[in-house]
Amino acid sequence: MVARLSFQTQRFPVKLYDFHPPVEDFRSAVLEGLSLPQKAISPKFLYDKRGSELFDAICQLPEYYLTRTERGILQTHAHPIATCLGGHTLVELGSGSSQKIRILLKAAPQVRTYVGVDISRQHLQEACLALMQDFDALDAIAVCADYTQPLPVEQIPEIRDHRTLGFFPGSSIGNLEPMEVVTFLKTMAVLGELIVGVDLKKSATILEPAYDDAQGISAEFALNLLTRMNRELGANFERQQFTYQAPYNPQAGRIEMAIVSRCDQTVRLGEAEIHFSRGETLRTEHSYKYTIEEFQLLAMEAGFQPIQVWTDADQFFSLHHLKQI
Ligand SMILES: C[S@@+](CC[C@H](N)C(=O)[O-])C[C@H]1O[C@@H](n2cnc3c(N)ncnc32)[C@H](O)[C@@H]1O
Description:
Elements: E1 15-18, H1 23-34, E2 39-40, H2 49-59, H3 65-76, H4 78-85, E3 89-93, H5 100-107, E4 113-118, H6 121-134, E5 139-144, H7 157-160, E6 164-168, H8 178-187, E7 193-199, H9 204-211, H10 217-233, E8 242-245, E9 248-249, E10 254-261, E11 265-269, E12 272-276, E13 281-288, H11 292-301, E14 304-311, E15 317-324
Parallel strand pairs: 1-5, 2-13, 3-4, 3-6, 4-5, 6-7
Antiparallel strand pairs: 7-15, 8-10, 9-10, 10-13, 11-12, 14-15
The structure holds S-adenosylmethionine.
S-adenosylmethionine binds next to α2.
């Protein structure tokens, strides 16, 4: 993987390492996903600029307990967590708007370098710029890359040459299948230590509205993928012919988010024709929920030692500090 760009300008003083996947990767992933018996597209493609904005709106929803609960844990335990950070370079995976990291940066002024890693380039650059403006002594570096691929650390001296700690909040790890979690954590061993946000198992009456809210923003977030495929891949999805669902599957311990076809229909994507039957689903995301012990077992299988877990009073969410064994 070659960084296509690494620059700072006076107007945009954030160093960017750009490993952004090309449109051709999006096209081939979509064509492959739409040819599966259970149609599926990776959640990483939900985050174009509009998708990132919609995700920020989801974080404000009353039903979306995840963001405010994880923020609460970070605020309550900011000092012990800050102690773990030491003078490490902080590498945030799936950094989004880089909001939660602010709580830690305030508690850990000794941290001088922050590396945000995200697939949504413009959103990432804006978030890093805002951090540099608000934290005078901080150097914020943007790495636009797919974190499900090994991080090209050899090309990022800020990671290669320093002791690092990876921060992976937002329950993004829940989007990976459990066996993928082990592979992912193994590739992140390069960071040495991790703090990972993991959503805990709870009642479907709390889980389902969090992923299918009354205002329809979660639905809009998923259906934006159709708009993105129309714009970037020349597809002809008709948005009003699709709807959205997010049931909890208690056996699998996951929310299953999907776009649902309202009718029998055929969609064109370049040369390809894709048929949808009425009620057929296109999976956009799984969001796995774990007990603390279930997640620790996966971490240990990946070669990490669980050091500490922080939770909220309701045991809705957990933050795990892991060290490579
Ligand atoms: C669930 S949001 C979490 C955002 C933020 N960390 C938080 O806790 O609120 C997931 C973030 O990860 C990014 N993302 C999703 N898949 C990714 C991938 N494969 N590689 C890099 N970034 C990814 C998205 O652009 C988005 O910013």
